[in-house]
Amino acid sequence: MDFELSEDQEALQDAVRKLCAGAYPMATVRSLEAHGGVERDLWRRLADAGVFSLRLPEPDGGVGLGSSEAVLVFEELGRALVPGPLLWSHLGAAVVDGAASGELVIGGVERRGQGGPQPLLLVEHLAALDRLLVLDDAGVWELEPTAVKGELVPHPLDPLTPLHAVQELPPGIQVAGPDTAAAWRLEGATFAAAILLGLAEAVTDMAVAYAKERQQFDRPVGSFQAVKHILADMLVRAEVARAAVYAAGAHLDDPGVGDVLRAVTGAKLMAGDAALANGKACIQVHGGMGFTWEVDAHLYLKRARVLDTVFGSTQAQAEVMAALI
User: Fold this and answer.
1) Torsion of CA 203, 13, 89, 42, to 10 degrees
2) Is the dihedral of CA 33, 36, 41, 46 positive or negative?
3) 15, 135, 274, 314: most buried, per Cβ within 10 A?
4) Please, are residues 165 and 133 in contact by the beta-carbon 8 Å criterion?
5) Is the pLDDT score of 115 beyond 90?
6) 152 strand-pairing partners
7) For the segment 151-180, what is each residue's pLDDT rounded down to a tens digit?
């Protein structure tokens, strides 16, 4: 399988990277904590760039591209640590008018199983949402966020991803059937893996830059063998994850090339492992100051922890993979 990007794909990747650099510098990202992670003008800029309409057919106002291109876009969004319900707004653009244009902010949550006592659900960005989508085995359901009663989690792990703990969800309007729900689980896992890949790459770049700059005994700390090994391991994890994530995107576009479930499971598993391990390693390379609020490394690790819980955790994906082989 050839993972070399075409000229159009490289142009798309470059355009999204420039958009993120201009609209989401780290100072802006940090300031979004006061807005619950979502600021409407910035959200519409993402929509104008086609982030949410990327895979919609052109007659429906979309860009008409595939999952391989969506993977590149979400990788860049992850690299820039862009917050908000990006995955759900992208998936929801196919069933909710106004999501593709950025007029509405769409969130979502997975509900496992039917009937009986339901486990506590954590709904992200609830206060900032215009619509909430609930994904379960029967399909996709649309709810009014104001009808959802939940307790705000006082100190969420990721300060840019506010959470509400919800015991029970009200009935909603079914907007898609079980086939769409099954497809969304694969697509959601793939695009979450792409964001995790971007996080893994960003902290690798951050650690390398610091290792070149920080001096010890009149030498950059990156010249020491122990630090070199950490950085090399970070690069290897990110590159392995890149291959897995790009393969998952290609499988979604052309299921005939292989086992789609295995490809998606491998992508989420490898990207989750890379983002978590690289996030820890980046803090280690920064030494004591790596634990401070001022150094951005902790924000990437916290986002990786949150993303690891959506569309199947690393542990859950490992169990699925074990059953497949």
Assistant:
1) 80
2) positive
3) 274
4) no
5) no
6) 164
7) 999 999 999 999 999 998 988 999 999 999
Strand pairing partners for 216?
219
- Rounded to an integer, the average pLDDT of 126-131 is 96
The pTM of the full predicted model, rounded to 2 decimals, is: 0.96
Q: How far apart are CA 70 and CA 242, in angstroms?
A: 14
Contact status, residue 296 vs residue 26, Cβ threshold 8 Å: yes
b/e per residue 199-230 (b: at least 16 CB within 10 A): bbbbbbebbbebbeebeeeeeebbeeeebeeb
Structure tokens at 240: 């392995």
Digit-coded pLDDT (tens) for 9-53: 999 999 999 999 999 999 999 999 999 899 999 999 999 999 999
pLDDT of residue 103: 96
* 37: alpha, beta or left? (left if phi > 0; alpha if psi -120 to 50): left
